[in-house]
Write a structure and sequence with these properties.
Belongs to the two pore domain potassium channel (TC 1.A.1.7) family. This protein is mainly alpha-helical. It is about 65% helix and about 0% strand.
């Protein structure tokens, strides 16, 4: 059985005197509702360096809306200019030359491909090939990430609306939202997708004068990028609406299936976690958990073994962490101190 003092060190901020200390790493994200950790990090400005570095890292990962907007603007502008100049080499039903060029770029970018406007020369066909690959790359790398960020913002409002009367204050609300993040993202996108389907169906029914069944059929063929082409936006007002509606609906559809897959994966992970936590520990487990080979398993070794079972960490990562610890532990005492860090930095150990 693991020593109680070591177990306490894992679950308390301040372990008992004489017990081995397991400090929370200040560079890792902490519970935003944990006042103790926030109070301690506010004491010294130097201790906030790691937190600032983490913020900069996530700032780089988060898509820049300026960059996304600029890339989309340049893509559409170049596309409109090219296909405006070569509109004579594109066959199909025309409305307005500039509008048709923009509409054709959007239909190409989203790979909907109705077929109501079709390149009929080698030049326009090559341009269409280039724009479909470039457009799909922009959607995959930038616009979908921006959409995911916007969904997260809407998710907060959606969650608060569902839990207006939740007791426990903001802290409990944040914990519950974090626990069910994927589920509420899925619900948010599903709600937005239903709204976009309804709006598209009603528009095609009222403006394009299609029947309700044909309107819904055209909407489904569009958002799934199937694009049969027998039904499409043929009027000038319809194509103005389609420019904004097509790109929004196709991205929402992609995000819907993405979150559905993530939700399924999360549920399988929870089932695995439940199985790992409830199964009996055997002697073979103890042998596998014994990292230092002393025929005894401490609390730290047991926790690491359980994390490995859950797939949260692997042996290669554990070995690299231990190597880093050995490099920092200059005096070979088995513990780290500020003296060790200072000495390791001056001797080039870090």
């Amino acid at each position: 059985m693991a020593d109680d003092s070591i177990r306490q060190a894992f679950i308390e901020d301040k372990p008992p005197e004489g017990a081995k200390r397991f400090r929370r790493c200040r560079s890792t994200p902490s519970d935003p509702t944990d006042k103790k950790s926030s109070d301690t990090t506010d004491k010294k400005p130097s201790e906030n360096v790691s937190a600032l570095q983490a913020k900069e890292l996530f700032k780089e990962i988060r898509p820049s809306f300026t960059l996304v907007g600029l890339l989309l603007f340049v893509y559409l502008l170049v596309g409109v200019i090219i296909f405006y100049l070569f509109m004579g080499q594109i066959s199909g039903k025309r409305t307005n030359r500039v509008l048709d060029a923009l509409y054709f770029v959007i239909v190409t970018m989203t790979s909907v491909g109705y077929g109501d406007l079709v390149p009929n020369s080698n030049t326009t066909k090559l341009f269409a090939c280039a724009f479909v690959f470039t457009g799909m790359a922009i959607i995959a790398l930038f616009i979908s990430k921006a959409a995911d960020y916007l969904v997260e913002k809407q998710e907060v409002l959606f969650f608060k609306a569902l839990h207006m009367n939740m007791k426990g204050g903001e802290a409990k609300l944040l914990r519950s939202m974090e626990t069910n993040r994927i589920k509420y993202k899925f619900y948010t996108v599903a709600l937005l997708l239903v709204m976009i389907i309804v709006s598209g169906t009603l528009f095609l029914w009222k403006v394009e004068k299609l029947s309700l069944v044909d309107s819904f059929y055209c909407v489904c063929a569009t958002i799934t990028t199937l694009g049969y082409g027998d039904k499409s936006f043929s009027s000038e007002l319809g194509r103005v609406f389609a420019i904004f509606w097509i790109i929004t609906s196709t991205i929402l559809m992609a995000q819907f299936f993405l979150y559905l897959a993530e939700l399924y994966t999360e549920r399988r992970q929870k089932m695995l976690t439940k199985w790992v936590l409830n199964r009996r520990v055997t002697t073979m487990d103890l042998e596998a958990a014994d990292l230092d080979g002393d025929r005894q398993v401490g609390a730290a070794e047991f926790v690491l073994y359980k994390l490995k079972e859950l797939g949260k960490i692997n042996q290669e990562e554990i070995s690299s962490f231990l190597e880093e610890f050995d490099k920092l532990d200059v005096d070979q005492s088995g513990t780290l101190s500020t003296y060790d860090l200072t000495l390791a930095q001056t001797t080039g150990g870090v």
